[in-house]
Amino acid sequence: MTEVFARWLLCATLILALTSPAQATETLSDAWTAALTSHQQLAAAEAEREAAHFGLASARAERMPRLDVSGGYTQLDSAPRFSFGDNFVSPRIFSGDNFSMANAQVSLPLYTSGAVSRGIDAARSQADAASGQVDAVRADVKLGAAVHYIAVLRNERALTVARANVAMLESHTADAENRFNIGDVARNDYLAASVQLADARQRELRAENQLELAQATYNRFLGRPQGTTVALDPLLNVTALLPSLNNLDQLLGIALEQRAEIDSIAARADALQAQAAAERARSRPQLMLISNYTRLETAVLADDEFWMVGLAVSWNPFDAGRNSNRVAAIRRQAQAVNHRLSDMSADIQLEVRSAWLDAQEAEQRIQVAEAAVIQAEENLRVARDRYKAGAGTNTEVLGAQALMEQALNNIDGANFDAALAKLRLARASGQL
Q1: How confident is the model at residue 317 (pLDDT cuts 50, 70, 90)?
Q2: Three-class secondary structure of residue 307 per DSSP
Q3: Cα–Cα distance between 150 and 156 in angstroms, integer?
Q4: Which of 283, 369, 378, 400 could be disulfide-bonded to 411 (CB atoms 3.0-4.6 Å)?
Q5: Do residues 231 and 24 touch, judged by C-beta distance below 8 A?
């Protein structure tokens, strides 16, 4: 931060401190912590990540034994019997006109043609995609908090400039009125100064409104009551919060390696490929170990409890294309995701380049604006001295004051734009 801008920030801080209630100053790091704690989009992404991990646990459980238990009670209109001709009818099959049955079966997949393992791969890739999405949302939340934080500072500075401009014009208008009253200048000097003062007061009112709106938007983003009074640290040192952002070629490479969105989309493509393989495997031979226990309440059988262990094989060689079409559909979805991944890579490179150029432009604007502030200060001082000495005109003073206001707004804008460009560059390169 340059000496001129640092001096201006100090003056602005003092003015705001005198006109605002005393409270703890909130830094950008504090804002990030508050936003990451309360933002609903991040909470939603984290919930989706947890859901994906539960899905992975479910897919892994497909390898484990499964126990199914069932039971039933049946009431008949009459007790059934066996008939062996006209002369012989068996006793009641059940002890009465009702019976109960219980069944327990344990099954364990022995061979699934890769359906279970590929299902696990798909669930794991889905979990990776959800984790990447959480990282991307977290970076977006940090950038959003920084944008609103800087918007508050920008509007605070604009209000400070507007108030300083009003104060200067009030002083000059009073001078013009006094000189008019003693006949030193024409009444036009007083009228022109009064009109410009009124216009400056309107800009001050607009600046107050814009600041209140910026503060409400900032509080809304951080999940706080929108009317909460905020006191932000005006000495914004973005460079200390961000990694080195000096080489464009390196940043382009870093972005393609570290952007969470790329990892997330790539993982989704992998998940779809694994899901397609799992679907295809389900139409191939499946082998399962089965153990079964059945109890049937009966009066005919000598033993009403039965145990069974066996192997079950299933295979679906023909299903009229149901499975093959599902597999083809999933593979086309994977191709679509891969196309989006290629397109995203190009967009990310453009995003990095754009933020880089914006940062370079802002830095150059800062240098020009610093010189302009020094020149505007000197120009205003000379114009006021000349007017007081009777050698200058009212128009010169008003013009010099307008140039001073513009110069201060320009250096504020250049510095805030530079900070935002660096933050966007860090986000674009995956380092925020």
Answers
A1: confident
A2: strand
A3: 10
A4: 369
A5: yes
Q: Residue 30 has what pLDDT?
A: 92
Q: What is the pLDDT of residue 90?
A: 67
Rounded Cα gap, residues 53 and 56, in angstroms:
5
Q: 67 has which bridge partners? A: 106
Please give the pLDDT value at position 17.
Answer: 47
Using CA atoms, how far apart are residues 115 and 283, in angstroms rounded to an integer? Answer: 9
Residue 89 reports pLDDT greater than 70: no
Do residues 286 and 115 touch, judged by C-beta distance below 8 A? yes
Q: Does residue 110 register a pLDDT over 50?
A: yes
pLDDT at res. 371 = 93
What superfamily in CATH does domain 3-74+94-428 come from? Outer membrane efflux proteins (OEP) (1.20.1600.10)
What would the two tokens of residue 177 be?
């009125």
Q: Which two tokens stand for residue 242?
A: 């961000």
Neighbour order of strands in the sheet with 286-296:
66-75, 98-111, 286-296, 305-314
How many angstroms separate the CA atoms of 343 and 340, rounded?
A: 5
Q: Could you tell me the CA-to-CA distances from 260 to 53, 203, 269 in Å, in that order?
A: 18, 43, 14
Q: Please, are residues 355 and 418 in contact by the beta-carbon 8 Å criterion?
A: no
pTM higher than 0.70: yes
Mean pLDDT of 209-213: 96
CA separation, residue 390 to residues 84, 89, 381 (Å): 138, 137, 14
How many beta carbons lie within 10 A of that of residue 257, not counting itself? 11
Residues 6+ apart with CB under 8 A from 165: 200, 203, 204, 401, 404, 405
| Domain spans in the chain, listed from the N-terminal domain onward | 3-74+94-428
Length of the chain, please? Answer: 432
Give 183-203 as a DSSP string.
TSS-HHHHHHHHHHHHHHHHH
- Could you give the CA distance from residue 232 to residue 157 in angstroms, rounded to a whole number? 12
Count CB-CB contacts under 10 A for residue 147: 15
State the Cα–Cα distance between residues 378 and 407, nearest whole angstrom.
Answer: 12
CA atoms of 115 and 284, how far apart (whole Å): 9
- For 22-156, where are the E strands, in sequence order? 66-75, 81-83, 89-92, 98-111
Structure tokens that stand for 275 in this block: 């899901």
Cβ atoms within 10 Å of 153's Cβ, excluding its own: 25
Residue type, 431: Q
| Partners of 413 in beta bridges | none
Q: What is the pLDDT of residues 230-247, one digit of tens each?
A: 899 888 778 777 777 678
Phi and psi, residue 307, nearest 5°:
-115, 145
